[in-house]
């Protein structure tokens, strides 16, 4: 694993560092918007007084803290960038592949590098069955990795395309605390309110840092989820969202899309069928989560 010198220096000095994933860039946003967002996220982290560490695999080597050329490579249109969950890190390394890390892989590599705060858009979860009459065993590896990786993930809840109730049950089973930031309801990525509550709430980055420190002092190795609703002015219209989701589910059934291809396919449908509205929402919620994560990382750093 290669850790950028700036990241290594910040960690050695007890400074604030925020991990950022690369699947969002390679598979969640189209070029050139993805490169613009990549730069905006890193700028937001720096503006808050922290160091950004975008994570990906380059030529079979995990890199924690991509440089500008590596970000260009990840965001290049048509690039052969494999989507990597934690299970894929070994094979991709052995075969010398370029890969974009999911929440699961990013959290694992961030923790290995000594980074405890990670910002993303939305967690994966328990997927709805492609065929309603079938039971699905498609559960995102994000949930299992969070159960054993003590990293704070700042996100806008879970993607609204998954079964949110089942996902929250899995997080509870794995003793992963779910905390709402400035809200008593669990957000659903494009939407501020999923219809499910959160067991805990904080209203400031300092409160969030206090909760993280107390959680880490408690028995166990689970991470924590801080659910930050998409800014109200950027929330996707609910009627439009529900229509796009129904269309997307039909698209999956018609094309037989399964497994790790489900999320990219649904997000692409949302972006295209909404005329770019969901793309703007996606970019804005990730930016808001990144700013918040950086503020929490700074608060944690001040506590040593």
UniProtKB/TrEMBL annotation:
GO terms for cellular component: cytoplasm. Binds 1 Mn(2+) ion per subunit. The keyword RNA-binding does not apply. One of its GO terms (biological process) is nucleobase catabolic process. Substrate binds at residues 83, 103, 140-142. Its cofactor is Mn(2+). Keywords: Glycosidase, Hydrolase, Lyase, Manganese, Metal-binding. Mn(2+) binds at residue 138. Catalyzes the reversible cleavage of pseudouridine 5'-phosphate (PsiMP) to ribose 5-phosphate and uracil. Functions biologically in the cleavage direction, as part of a pseudouridine degradation pathway. Belongs to the pseudouridine-5'-phosphate glycosidase family. Homotrimer. This is Pseudouridine-5'-phosphate glycosidase. The gene is psuG.
């Amino acid at each position: 694993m290669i850790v950028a010198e700036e990241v290594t220096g910040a960690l050695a000095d007890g400074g604030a560092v925020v991990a950022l994933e690369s699947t969002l860039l390679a598979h969640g946003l189209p070029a050139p918007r993805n490169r613009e967002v990549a730069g905006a996220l890193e700028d937001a982290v720096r503006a808050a007084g922290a160091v950004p560490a975008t994570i990906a695999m380059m030529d079979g080597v995990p890199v924690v803290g991509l440089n500008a050329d590596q970000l260009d490579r990840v965001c290049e249109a048509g690039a052969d960038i494999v989507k990597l969950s934690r299970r894929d890190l070994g094979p991709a390394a052995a075969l010398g592949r370029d890969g974009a890390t999911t929440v699961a892989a990013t959290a694992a590599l961030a923790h290995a590098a000594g980074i405890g705060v990670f910002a993303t858009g939305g967690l994966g979860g328990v997927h709805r069955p492609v065929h309603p009459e079938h039971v699905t065993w498609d559960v995102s590896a994000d949930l299992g990795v969070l159960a054993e990786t003590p990293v704070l993930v700042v996100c806008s809840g879970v993607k609204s395309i998954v079964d949110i109730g089942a996902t929250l049950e899995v997080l509870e089973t794995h003793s992963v605390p779910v905390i709402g930031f400035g809200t008593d309801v669990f957000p659903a990525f494009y939407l501020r309110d999923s219809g499910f509550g959160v067991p805990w709430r904080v209203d400031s980055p300092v409160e969030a840092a206090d909760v993280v420190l107390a959680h880490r002092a408690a028995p166990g190795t689970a991470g924590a989820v801080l659910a930050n609703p998409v800014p109200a002015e950027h929330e996707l219209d609910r009627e439009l969202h529900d229509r796009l989701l129904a269309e997307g589910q039909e698209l999956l059934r018609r094309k037989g899309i399964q497994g790790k291809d489900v999320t990219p396919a649904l997000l692409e449908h949302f972006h295209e069928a909404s005329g770019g509205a969901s793309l703007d929402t996606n970019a804005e919620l990730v930016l808001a989560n990144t700013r918040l994560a950086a503020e929490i990382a700074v608060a944690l750093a001040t506590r040593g």
